[in-house]
Design a protein that fits this description.
This protein is of the alpha+beta class and 226 residues long. Helix content is 26%, strand content 22%. The chain contains 5 helices and 9 strands. The strands form 2 sheets. The chain has a 7-stranded antiparallel beta sheet with strand order 2-5-4-3-7-9-8, sandwiched between helices. Helix 2 packs across helix 4 (154-176) and helix 3 runs antiparallel to helix 4. The radius of gyration is 17 Å and the shape is globular. It starts with a helix and ends in a 16-residue tail after the last strand.
């Protein structure tokens, strides 16, 4: 679906998910993440960039497992995560839009739980590439968990937390041969409706991840524009 078509549908409140192909698994148990290896930090930082051309190839389950753990997994016995959260509110939820459905990432169980058996990828952004990329991550803030944070500051606190998760995804992608781009140009209402979110939940950002699409060795468009 073209960007212009999405914009028109969004203005009409008619941007809708696609049906899934095949069956949607109710839960997906992720294999234990590989917590060793990867590129050295400085080399990873040197390779970090945004990419907007993706091959449709699905990520193998072990790679998806590592990606989600790097993004916001539990990395300590006390339940701490790989990304910071003010007052340890852990207010960010990560949703994964796959061709087989939209899933909630359960960090404690390190598993995916089906939220809706629809292909939400096209709803996660106005850009045309999100429709066919293998997965789109959606970062949602649950303000009900932020009781210790003044109301006027909750969105900014949550946005910082989501940004830290997004950078984890960027660095993992750079270290693992994947490509990624963070996106703020999104129809938040359409996403919230598709996921069945409550009034306390706020869609903040989306992030596309996948293998880079190349054409005869020519590297796809790169930039850090959101």
């Amino acid at each position: 679906m073209s960007t212009l078509t999405k914009l028109v549908l969004g203005m009409m409140g008619q941007l809708r998910p696609k049906p899934v192909r095949g069956n949607s698994e109710i839960s997906i148990a992720l294999p234990p993440p590989q917590k060793q290896g990867g590129l050295p930090l400085m080399e990873t930082l040197a390779k970090r960039h945004s990419w907007r051309e993706f091959a449709p190839d699905a990520l193998p389950l072990p790679l998806l497992s590592d990606l989600l753990w790097a993004a916001y997994g539990v990395n300590r016995a006390d339940g701490g995560r790989t990304a910071p959260s003010a007052l340890n509110a852990q207010e960010i939820d990560v949703y994964v839009a796959l061709p087989a459905g939209a899933y909630f990432y359960d960090a404690e169980m390190h598993a995916l739980h089906l939220v809706v058996a629809s292909d939400l990828r096209r709803v996660t952004g106005y850009q045309d590439f999100v429709d066919e990329a293998p997965l789109d991550l959606i970062y949602v803030a649950d303000h009900a968990r932020m009781g210790m944070v003044p109301v006027a500051q909750r969105e900014s606190y949550a946005s910082v937390a989501a940004g830290a998760i997004a950078q984890n995804v960027y660095l993992f992608s750079a270290s693992s041969g994947l490509s990624s781009v963070i996106r703020a140009w999104i129809d938040r209402t359409a996403i919230a409706d598709a996921l069945g979110l409550t009034h306390d939940q706020q869609v903040l950002l989306s992030q596309t991840v996948g293998y880079a699409k190349t054409n005869s060795g020519f590297e796809a468009q790169q930039s850090d524009e959101i």
